Protein 1
Amino acid sequence: MKIIKIVNALFALALLVILVLLISCNTEGIKPSPGNYIIQGSQDLEPSFSPDGNFIAYRHDGDLNNTPTSPGSYQSGLYIINKDGSNRKLVLLGTRLNPAWSPEGKWLVFSTSGIIQKCGTNGDSLKTFTCLNNLSYPEFYYPKWSSDGKLILFDKPLGSDWGFYTTATNFLGSGRFLGLEILGRNPELSPSRNHLIYEAGKGGGTNVSVSEIFLLNINGITKIQLTINGRDNRAPTWSPDGTMIAWSGNLHLSMMNADGTAQKDIEYGNSPSWSANNEIVYSHANSDYTKEVLYTISPDGKNKKQITF
């Protein structure tokens, strides 16, 4: 009996210790951190520097009713700001994904509900790409101009004929990029137009949990996997001189040489865009993790500045 009483006393003491620990623990759960957060408020996303580096186009997602609900909030749409965040200008209302500039800076191209469109920087002269509607799942995303302004490159993520396609900038004529089946997403031609970077699963597809960055040598049609780091690597983009690549993976903003060497993290962030003035704009949470906002930074990780609020 004495042994039983001792065991019961020890058991009660253990329960008391556990109860004290539970009470003292943080009942709010895991707090957000630069590398792990979920935004519930408005979001500034997919920024794109103008060719001269003076302006930034971006997509703003407001509240669900598309109506401002608090001071400083505004409607969902495509916007342009000065590179310091001043003089915000509405281009078009609505959800306009993946905005990109034409080489001379007079047009913006984007995806609206899977349809490629372009307009002037004042929202005028809206034009819609209507080719390729005969394909299965005719939805297209991530449009980007070539540096010579002769074509727009974009991806088709669904169906048996998915991959990369191009159209002339007047939206007349279209087809597979280079006539090849290149399986991936978010393609971007180098400034010299000799190389292509894109994101894809390790085997070239997208039905995997991790995406890597690939480089395609257009002249030799050779493919090189540039990243092998266990992250979900996305949004690769060229430096203006074509010697380096920036990208984001698992909320890390990273840089590397064009051949994949010298990979390094410079900050936390998503969806980088490189300017002619050697600045990078990207999105990340604000200080209290209530909004996704835009920042600029130098390629060496210095001079970080929040430009939207």
Protein 2
Amino acid sequence: MLLGFVHLSLDQELRQALIKNEIQANTEKLALDSAKVELGRMLFYDKILSGNKDISCASCHHPKLHSGDALALPIGVGGTGLGVERIMGEGREHIPRNSPEIFNRGSSEWHTMFWDSRVQDRGEKGWYTPADEKFPQEGFDNILAVQAMFPVTSRDEMRGDIGDMDINGEVNELALISPAMPQSIWFALMQRLIAIPEYVELFAKAYPDIPTEELSFVQAANALAAYEISAFTYMDSPWDEYLAGDEEALTEAQKRGAMFFYREGSCVSCHSGNLMTDQQPHNLGIPQFGPGKDIDVPLDFGQIVESGKSEDLFAFRTPPLRNVALTGPWMHNGAYDDLEATIRHHLNPAEALEKYPIQKLPEELQISFQDDAGVLKRIKETIDPLLANRQLQANEQEIKDLLAFMHALTEESAKKQITEAPQNVPSGLAVDDM
């Protein structure tokens, strides 16, 4: 009897790759309380959560900007406008890291938040956060709610600086609180909120068993998370349809791109699992620019600041890839405004770093570009071994196919931008919209 080779179709090969990588259609049911979602909706767009009352969560994560801000580096406190039209306030600097998209953050598979994973779910050990022992460990619905506790404590993002006056010409009392006392910042914010009758009503509907005087910012954070999950969870991309069994949902190019993506040693090495991220830090050899995160030098050393591990120097958490074609600029600092260029960088990070087109950056960021030979050497020496020890090979057709697959991850609802901002919020402050 002659044994012949069985020729598998492209779909059969791809299905085998998906099984091997434990990729499956999303069946997770998200149960959200409508009253909590509505409270979160108001909070998300209300600038009352910022020290100067001039910026809201939506200013950097707007639905019409695909849950981001369309900027390489965000413009925080003191800024005006939205997206590429946003104007920096006098005497301010950019926020050092790109505003990440916030699609599909309700998945139970998430166990880290932020580019440096400074918020983590450590199971029985509890929440790991920058607030250490001052962080309230109880009462959170999910890790996204834990994340929501921190932008309001950041001077650059929402809290403001000592000496700032709010838009009404009054002293910014939040800025006066020591950063070593985050619990006092959260308390002060709740005092602002419960001084507004409409918020008292909204909290009462969302938390009927908690008296107003016993409310804390934990409840506000849970509501913010509920709204974000409700507003930015879609799961209706061609990729979702394919995973659910519709083999016609993807083009042949997209299927070939998926095969390349799931090829051993390829993209799936870091963009793994159903979330398409291993949630681990990697140094991809991204150029440094902007104000940085270090008080002495304008550099962002990445996850090493949190972990203390030398291998985490210039390393940042792998981003998820849902709606990636919509959510540029890409990388932890928005270094690329072209998705194909972003993909090509992965093929040879050291070379891409050396040849990075500085002129592509906004003018105000070009002057902060770190082209010092010593800095470039340190970045290249610590590029993740997954990329440094072997150059990922891809021909022109494979790059086109991979790009096509990235577009297959675009959810139809995200493309249509169906989430709407409220016309008014309880504080009466202006709502950012386009």
Protein 3
Amino acid sequence: MGPKLVDKLHIYIGTMDTYQLNYAVRELDEWMKTTANPHYEGFFEYGVGEPHCYTGRLTQAERLVEIADFIAAKRPYVADAPWWKH
């Protein structure tokens, strides 16, 4: 399963998570640094002092553009697919 997750884990968490999930995420972050074959550390962004549902520093519109760009970069080749452009 490891190779299928490479470049796909993007985790945003507040350091003051309401449900204290930040502790488990820190453990996952540390474990990901030890992975091999393939080595993939994932992407972790910690919002200092932020609560549960922290979604990063981007606005919702900016995040949607980021997601659309990521999907477009991973899409199968199609010669003419204008619906992939935002």
